[in-house]
Amino acid sequence: MPLTSPKSPTLFRPEHLFKGRNGSPGSEFLFSDGRNEVTLTYDIPGQTDHQPTGHPPNIAFWVIVKGRYEYRIDDQAPLLALSGDVLICTPNHPYTISAIGDEPCYRIAVYNPNVLINTDIGGLTAKPPNLVHTRINHLYLDSPERKFTVIENPENRTFAIREYPGTTSKAHWHFDFDEWWVIVAGNLIFEIGENRAPIHAQQGDIVFTPRGFRHQITTIGNSPSIRMPTTTPESVHIYTDDDTSAPPPKK
């Protein structure tokens, strides 16, 4: 059966997706953005068998949505990955990724079915973007920066963006690619299209917007938000209706 993606803006909340599984682990396809196939996996510590695997070269990266994972590459010391962390999959190196701790865990897998990702084990000591392990919350510990590039390859650019309560992004749309976000921290309102109910997103949620929908994002509540959008490397933004270089926004 072919994989289908939402035709309209959609909120994915992991706990809701797996509510009917009665505590059994498994995976759910979320969407394709034209470049990637994005899947959410639900893991129960001690119930999922993670044998060493020679990783196929076209899985780009994971995002840990909830819980704790141990990621081991070859015979190196394991990496502890927490909620909001990003892990690059290193092609042609045996790996294991295992849920640990006392609570259910969720992770997103971003799979490029037609692209070979050229990422090597040397990324363990590299600087962002393309660290094998990026702890998003640590990027902001001693930095006033708003935005970091976390992943950059021929198909994708993934950012971490921190905003303070009351901050609203400038409304825009992308005519040539779908955009999606992982919410790492905080609470946000996504206003997408016209005459559509706003999407209220919280930590752990995934928001998908098909190409062509105008959108703007507001951080609400009492604490900063961190969101991770995945775009194309060019990431063309259209801001005004009189910009004739692109089709008008969808409703």
What would you say this structure looks like, in words?
The protein contains two helices and 19 strands. It has 251 residues and is mostly beta strands. Strands 1-17-14-19-13-12 form a six-stranded antiparallel beta sheet. It is globular. It starts with 9 loop residues before the first strand and ends in a 20-residue tail after the last strand.
Radius of gyration: 18 Å
Give the integer mean of the pLDDT values.
88
Question: What number of structural domains do the residues give?
Answer: 1
Helix content: under 10%
Uncertain regions: pLDDT < 50 for 5+ in a row?
Answer: 119-125
Topology, element by element:
Layout (H helix, E strand, L loop, with lengths): L9 E3 L1 H4 L8 E7 L4 E7 L9 E2 L4 E8 L1 E6 L5 E4 L2 E4 L5 E7 L4 E7 L21 E3 H4 L7 E6 L4 E7 L15 E7 L1 E6 L6 E4 L3 E4 L5 E6 L4 E7 L20
Antiparallel strand pairs: 1-17, 2-3, 3-10, 4-9, 5-8, 5-10, 6-7, 6-9, 8-11, 12-13, 13-19, 14-17, 14-19, 15-16, 15-18
